[in-house]
């Protein structure tokens, strides 16, 4: 699933082949072989150290540069007032929380495309939840269809957006409601927004059974691009934001809310440390996908 490829030609190979072309006689005399190997090592010690370091570096690289895509919880946040975000849903597999999501109508949930591995994986949606351990007013709804963005691939973080059509329309009430989407245009940098989720409380810590939330401020796209690099960050389809608190593993798919509008879908963070200032959280920019969304939902609010 990691799509980083290492060009094998980049790895210099030691020129040990001379040993394999030696006459058989020579190989019988192990003392010679060891002594010659030792001499070879001494002569080429720097070269060998470089190879070993390169191999070590190559094995570490995916961990250093890759980003978490599944299961992004909120760090440094606080517990949300129960049911203050009635659009929030928990996306579950075998009754276990895997991602966030949000209602955008009484029939559709928006989430991140990476939250679903494809058929035959079956997800359910828990609506009206606050504490996932106690279902007071919450209930599960089955998903009728998974509408992953056609240009999303597991090999990139691009177009990380998905719609879930629910098996039945949900009844709207104080605990279950949808959130509006942006009409058009970009949210500018330096806007105070918020995120919420049931994801991890610390990078390597536990997830939360209660919905957590944090404030976060959008960053202008030049700075996002500089911090992430253009391989990961695409200004036309992503937003990045940073705050005292932020998303972590398990929060993917939840909304970036600015004012009363969902402007982004939580997509990826640094796998090394959630909410690192040098790697601000990245969200799929909803306004870039409005025509695609309207194909499925015409009467969107
Ligand atoms: C977010 O900011 C608002 C307004 O400044 C504040 O009232 C609220 O407590 C903050 N929320 C969190 C989770 O820090």
From TrEMBL:
It comes from the Eukaryota. The chain crosses the membrane at residues 44-61. One of its GO terms (molecular function) is serine-type endopeptidase activity. The keyword Ligase does not apply. Keywords: Disulfide bond, Hydrolase, Membrane, Protease, Serine protease, Signal, Transmembrane, Transmembrane helix. CDD domains: Tryp_SPc. GO terms for biological process: proteolysis. Pfam families: Trypsin. The keyword Glycoprotein does not apply. Residues 74-298 form the Peptidase S1 domain. Gene3D superfamilies: Trypsin-like serine proteases (2.40.10.10). This is Peptidase S1 domain-containing protein. It comes from Cyprinus carpio carpio.
């Amino acid at each position: 699933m990691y799509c980083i490829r290492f060009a094998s030609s980049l790895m210099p190979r030691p020129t040990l082949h001379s040993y394999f072309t030696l006459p058989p006689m020579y190989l019988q005399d192990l003392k010679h072989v060891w002594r010659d190997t030792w001499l070879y090592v001494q002569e080429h010690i720097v070269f060998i150290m470089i190879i070993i370091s390169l191999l070590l570096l190559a094995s570490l690289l995916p961990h250093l540069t890759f980003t978490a895509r599944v299961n992004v919880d909120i760090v440094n946040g606080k517990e949300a007032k129960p049911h203050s975000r009635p659009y929030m849903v928990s996306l579950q597999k075998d009754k276990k929380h895997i991602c966030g999501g949000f209602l955008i109508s009484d029939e559709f949930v928006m989430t991140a495309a990476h939250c679903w591995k494809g058929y035959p994986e079956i997800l359910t949606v828990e609506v009206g939840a606050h504490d996932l351990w106690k279902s007071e007013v919450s209930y599960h709804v089955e998903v009728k269809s998974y509408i992953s963005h056609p240009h999303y691939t597991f090999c990139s973080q691009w177009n990380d957006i998905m719609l879930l059509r629910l098996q039945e329309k949900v009844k709207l009430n104080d605990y279950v409601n949808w959130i509006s989407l942006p009409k058009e245009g970009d949210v500018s940098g330096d806007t105070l927004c918020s995120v919420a989720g049931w994801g991890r409380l610390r990078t390597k810590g536990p997830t939360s059974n209660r919905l957590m939330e944090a404030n976060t401020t959008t960053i202008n796209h030049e700075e996002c691009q500089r911090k992430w690099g253009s391989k990961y960050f695409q200004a036309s389809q992503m937003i990045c934001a940073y705050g005292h608190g932020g998303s972590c593993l398990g929060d993917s798919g939840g909304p970036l809310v600015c004012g009363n509008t969902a402007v982004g879908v939580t997509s990826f963070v640094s796998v090394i440390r959630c909410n690192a200032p040098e790697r601000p959280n990245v969200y799929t920019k909803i306004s870039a996908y409005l025509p695609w969304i309207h194909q499925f939902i015409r009467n969107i609010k």
